[in-house]
Amino acid sequence: MGSFIQLSNFPKILPYAQLFRQGIIVTVMLSLFTVAIGFCIALVLALMRLSNIRPFRFLGTTKEGYQREKGFLAVVSRFNPLSFIATAYVELLRSTPVLVQIFIIYYGVFGIISLPSFSMFGFIKFDRFFPGVVALGMNSGAYLCEIIRSGIQSIDGGQTEAARSLGLSQVQNLRYIILPQALKNILPAIANEFVVIIKESAITYTIGVQDIMSAVNAVKGATFIIVEPLLVATAIYFCLCFPTSKLIAYFERRMSRGDKR
Questions:
Q1: What is the pLDDT of residue 259?
Q2: Average pLDDT score over residue span 233-246
Q3: CATH number, residue 50
């Protein structure tokens, strides 16, 4: 088992080109589904964090009608359960390793819930692909939540006042005025998250997802060469991520032109 690069080893990888092609498809699908699921989770979490639901608000007022500034009752009156749950979720998933989260989802959750065992496109095992998507989507949602929340908060509050003066409800204001502008501002960040997921998805091979790193593992097991398959995987990830990031930068410049006056 050689530990240095040998050009003669690269032809030995050619018979496994189909595995790398399948790995590319799996990696791209994994990234797309992850960002889609992560965005939906993040949008809900962001709205929960920005909500103003305080069920114990009445405890913040004294019998005389004055607002409590200090004390236990004042703290309880400001408690927002939705914001607390969303914040706890974000902090927990951002403070723990992705590998641990994937193992908990795969062995803990889907070890109890039995998934149907079938193959998509003939080579993607659903019972391994789906837990990987769920785990990465939950993790991505924690990071995208902060992006979406900052995007919503970046919109001028005067637009909300204008929407109220026009008779729009809070939901209508959010749907037709706030979110479209916020999404335009955060679209490059969401697209960059897609590039990050392409790279992070490599960790799902640990639960048997047939991505690019799974192909590397298969080649290593069959040919007993390590460095050369890793170099091939590096080149593939580069070819996926570099053009995508440049395309994102191009559209970001195009979108920013409309904001300049």
A1: 59
A2: 91
A3: 1.10.3720.10
